[in-house]
Amino acid sequence: MSELFIVVGLKAKVGKEDELRRDLSALVEPSRNEDGNIRYDLFEDQNEPGRFVFVEEWSSIEARTRHHEHGPHIEHFHANGVSNVDKTEFAHLLKRVA
Known about the structure:
Layout: E1 4-12, H1 17-32, E2 37-44, E3 51-58, H2 61-70, H3 72-81, E4 85-94
Antiparallel strand pairs: 1-3, 1-4, 2-3
């Protein structure tokens, strides 16, 4: 297995910043408790509220795939909370260089 690092940037719809903050925050603890999760942190831009960044580290691509495709909390977000997202600004799958 090789570790996987991910950073994802999401921008809230205007007026939906608080709702998206709540919905994204609800994903953190269940994701941290998943098999294969090493790190799962949510950040918000200090200068632009409503711009969120996830920093994730997984033990393998398989663990991250299980999380993203089968996690009930992720499924709930996609069914309910994603409507507060204006756009995904970036999603990078990274490998450690040094």
